[in-house]
Design goal:
The structure holds 2 protein chains of 2 kinds.
Chain A lengths: L1 H25 L1 H23 L2 H7 L25 H37 L1 H15 L3 H12 L3 H28 L2 H8 L4 H12 L1 H25 L10 H8 L7 H29 L7
Helix pairs in contact in A: 2-4, 2-12, 4-5, 4-7, 4-9, 4-10, 4-12, 5-7, 6-7, 7-10, 8-9, 10-11, 10-12, 11-12
Chain B lengths: L1 H27 L5 H6 L5 H10 L6 H13 L13 H36 L4 H15 L2 H15 L11 H6 L9 H8 L2 H38 L2 H8 L4 H35 L8 H11 L2 H28 L6
Helix pairs in contact in B: 1-14, 5-6, 5-10, 5-12, 6-10, 7-10, 9-10, 10-12, 12-13, 12-14, 13-14
Classes of the chains: A mainly alpha, B mainly alpha.
């Protein structure tokens, strides 16, 4: 008896999931980028486990092998301390993905409730929240993140926080737009009519119904945030040596790259690849979630 | 129209005030100690207290804020910890080269981006169209600093066509009298009529300007393309074609003209983007602009300089955004 209820409730969900997958498969580029993201996640999780990390982060300097070009032994060559760049780039995947995820999640945690509240209540609250949002949007994100990171002191954690502070307004804006139209919908009005407390309406009705655009936006933003983090690290405001962060590797490579092209190109390509993949996936997700562009 | 402009300007001023306020909070409230930075790590407790008094950090926050705003209005941005000069005079020397770079990048984006967009719209789904779309996605994804290094590697190291960095060649700048009228070197050389110097400066600006313009080129090409694709399916284009007008005329005179509104808007927004991107590029090309200034300030934790550049760039960004909105309003079809 109990099991049949379980099956009954799960069946549409499984079917729905299957539909999503088949929609994803229809667009080849989106599908490819989806697999690429999974691959990156796997690398991020596995690389630090499989590689004896300490060897390639700080201790394992090997001056006899410094600045070697790409070879079978060192696919991406070595850096000025003789560390294998391939391994460092692999190890950097976790740093980039992890910090980007944390930054975007923080931004969502600040931005989404604010947007939902602004859109649902309207009036003066809306006005105040949105004007503050406008002010934050008045800053180019990199600039705001940079000055905050500089004042908090250069470290990867501070850079992540700084990016979150610079990024939340985008989510507020999107969610507010959704919430304004949701407010007039029947089910929300019904909830108001039966006396549901406002906070409950916001987190039970408004926020869950804004999830689709939030997911799309955060996928695209992951790419942009990875780029921003590596830019901050490049400027010396993010990761600190000897962390194998991509932007930082490119930054140190500046002193050697004219005679060792592999030193700056491979980490740079790693950033470009990761950002590209997230952008493509975000683009594809937007198309899938918007029925008008779905081409069914 | 007038009401819209007035409202937009008022809104812009409000945002400017907000931006300045946020900068204040970033510089005073975050867990950093400007006084500690000012006196250095080896200072005694008394020296620290004295510095705190001198910098006005011991006063209540609202008084500090008032002083900060009045300092700003008087153009007093403090003294750089590194150069020991007023930040304002530092900015005056470093801003013109950056403006020059941003303008060149914008011009490049305009000259390259629009034809690319027009071509991909008129040759939809052909090879170059696909190439353009890949380009525009790629230009958002490749980090600017990697592009800069790659270009240096190709055009300086491998081909030897262009110089590595700087604003002009040291030898040439020593032989010639470097003019200073507007601060924009290229323009100054033209005013002076010094073609040798002009050519050299032009050779130096190509790589950094192109690096910065890569994203605007992609964006403008994409915007022009999507605007044109829509316009080309409109009735008046069909009418023009059925009159038997040449396709080139229809495309450039009838269609492109109508897409320019969006393009100009994007172009102005791109300038704001390019301005911030100079932070990543100038240091690589040793271009003596605010980008290099702030890159050094950031590594030496020169707080007054960071705040100065932040305020300048944020204000420029706000104003550019304002202009971008107004550019749209010029279009007579837009009702406000």
């Amino acid at each position: 008896m109990k099991q049949s209820v379980f099956i009954k409730t799960m069946k549409p969900k499984v079917k729905h999931f299957g539909e999503s997958i088949s929609l994803l498969k229809r667009n080849r580029l989106t599908c490819l980028s989806f697999y690429a993201v999974i691959m990156l996640l796997l690398i991020a999780v596995m690389a630090p486990v499989l590689l004896p990390a300490a060897q390639h982060i700080d201790q394992a300097t090997n001056p006899t092998e410094k600045l070697l070009g790409p070879s079978l032994e060192h696919p991406f060559g070595t850096d000025e301390l003789g560390r294998d760049l391939f391994k460092r780039v692999l190890l950097g995947t976790r740093i980039s993905l992890q910090t980007a995820l944390v930054a975007v999640l923080c931004a969502i945690m600040i931005g989404v409730p604010l947007g939902a509240v602004a859109g649902f209540f309207g009036g003066a609250i809306d006005e105040i929240i949105m004007r503050i949002t406008d002010i934050f949007l008045g800053f180019p994100p990199l600039l705001l993140a940079m000055s905050i990171a500089a004042f908090m002191g250069p470290s990867l954690r501070n850079a992540t926080l700084a990016i979150a502070v610079a990024w939340w307004p985008w989510f507020t804006r999107i969610v507010r737009g959704q919430a304004v139209s949701l407010r007039e919908r029947q089910f929300v009005r019904a909830a108001v009519a039966i006396g549901t407390p406002s906070y409950k309406i916001v987190y039970k009705h408004i926020i869950p119904n804004c999830l689709a655009p939030i997911i799309v936006q955060s996928t695209m933003d992951l790419g942009a945030v990875i780029l921003t983090i590596s830019s901050l690290s490049f400027l010396g405001l993010g990761a600190q040596p000897p962390q194998p962060e991509w932007g930082l590797i490119v930054s140190t490579s500046r002193n050697y790259f004219l005679n060792a092209w592999w030193y700056s190109i491979f980490p740079g390509a790693a950033i470009a690849f990761t950002v590209l993949v997230f952008n493509l996936l975000g683009d594809g997700l937007r198309e899938i979630m918007d029925p008008r562009t779905r081409n069914v | 129209m007038k009401r819209f402009l007035l409202k937009r300007i008022l809104m812009g001023l409000l945002i400017l005030l907000g931006v300045v306020t946020i900068t204040f909070f970033v510089s005073r409230v975050l867990p950093s100690d400007p006084a500690r930075q000012w006196v250095g790590i080896r200072a005694t407790q008394e020296q620290l207290e004295k510095a705190r008094g001198e910098l006005g950090l011991d006063r209540p926050l609202n008084e500090q804020y008032r002083n900060y705003i009045s300092d700003l209005l008087h153009g007093n941005l403090g003294t750089s910890l590194r150069t020991k000069r007023p930040v304002l005079s530092d900015l005056k020397t470093y801003i013109p080269p950056t403006i020059e770079l941003v303008l060149m990048a914008t011009v490049a984006a305009f000259i390259i981006g629009i034809p690319l967009g027009v071509y991909s719209a008129s040759h939809k789904d052909r090879t170059l169209d696909h190439f353009c779309r890949v380009m525009s996605v790629a230009s958002v994804s490749i980090p600017t600093f990697t592009v800069a290094l790659l270009l240096q590697l190709i055009f300086y190291q491998n081909l030897g066509w262009l110089p590595l960095g700087g604003q002009m060649d040291i030898k040439i700048s020593m032989l010639h009298n470097v003019p200073h009228y507007t601060g924009l070197l290229l323009l100054d050389c033209l005013i002076d009529g010094n073609m040798v110097l002009f050519k050299d400066a032009l050779r130096h600006i190509i790589l950094p300007a192109f690096t910065i313009s890569l994203y605007p080129i992609g964006l403008i090409a994409r915007m022009t393309r999507s605007a044109l694709v829509e316009i080309l399916s409109e009735d008046y284009i069909k009418a023009a074609r059925s009159y038997g007008l040449r396709e080139r005329l229809v495309l450039w005179k009838y269609a492109v003209k109508n897409s320019l509104g969006t393009t100009m808007n994007v172009l102005v927004l791109c300038m704001g983007y390019a301005l911030v991107n100079t932070f990543l590029v100038e240091a690589i090309f040793s271009w003596p602009g605010i980008g290099m200034y702030i890159a050094v300030a950031v590594t030496t934790l020169d707080y007054p300089a960071i705040i100065g550049v932040t305020i300048f760039s944020a204000c420029a960004y706000v104003i550019l955004n304002m202009i971008a909105d107004m550019v749209i309003a010029i279009d007579p079809r837009v009702r406000l």
